[in-house]
Amino acid sequence: MLPTFNRQKRQDSGGKLIFGDNILCSQFLRDYADLEILRNIRPEDIEDVSERYVLLYSSQRDSDTVKKVNISRYLSAEEDENPLELPLYIVSLVEHKTKVEYNVCIQIFRYIFCIWDDYERQMEKTHPGISARRDFRYPPILPIVYYEGTDRWTAPMDLADRILCKELLGDYLPHLTYQVVRLHDYSNEELLSRGDEISLAMLVNKIRCPEDVEIFTQLPKEKMDGILQDTPTYLLEIMAKLARALFYNMDIPEDKTEEAVAKIKERRMGKLFEGITFDYQAEMRKMREATEAAQREIEAAQRKSEAAQQEIEAAQRKSEAAQQDMEAANKKIELAEEMEAEAQKKNAEAEKVREEASQKVKILSHIARMAFCHHTASEIKFSLIQEFGLTEEEAEEEYRRVVE
Prior knowledge:
- This protein is an alpha/beta fold.
- The chain contains 14 helices and 5 strands.
- It starts with 6 loop residues before the first helix and ends with a helix.
């Protein structure tokens, strides 16, 4: 069977590992955040405050990251309009998504309000009444959606687009936009050209199927190994954990997993998948054979349908002849009507055959596509129930028939 890729586990593990580390996070903000002041950000400028804000907002969103980025050293004197000497930092809010979520604007808005409300409370504790001052300001928040899915990001980019009859409010309409960093917008070569650890982490995160592994193995091994030559040991361990999570979700045996992970610690990233093989060619051949068999069934049903149509046309001609001879013989009329009814019945049967054949090929194609994309059996059966209105027993039967 094909390796199983558990996307939810990848989201939980990959997001925490990548954005939880300040070196990787600083590289991400420098390379991918669309903000000039972050171009020279260093790891020591970053403080992870995820535990404070993520849990304050929701205990279920533990793959999201909130970073406090100190920007005071990057602001010139002319830009510093801070008479109250408020702390100068940008809050980087990273939402980690593996599929399109259309209400992400509201999620981000809730996050931002939560962070600002907490900031105001903290400032009031140390400086009572400061939030009522004319010069009081809240820290800027940069919302980023890190999207690992392969589909195009189609969720609204502006909070205003989630408001009914928004044109009625005019200038009073609230706006909030966010940046989407879509992993699959970057080619492997482009990621590798960045030459830092975050590029390797994102290359690993792009792997969704055995074909992706094959593409990964074609990348320049010397260049990947070179990136890790000066990487701190603790960061190698993070990269190893990221790879271990990938292998775990691919159902790779533990001994093979540890052999592969050891190569990262040895700074041999280019040989990460050396010795790892996937027997997916046989599975794909079975799928193709099943599709070809379904096509043959369709063709046979089409031939039956054509034959039935010819019978219908012949019956219709007889009916017309019988109708012309109506005055001569009522008996012939009744016979013609019976023939016409029979023709309609055959037409209905033919239509039913066509519909059943079409439904079968749709179901088979659907199963083949989902299996090709490495969905689990339960996911495929659940999809059959949702997409085609099958019962659980019918979904089980269709899936079993294809697999066998």
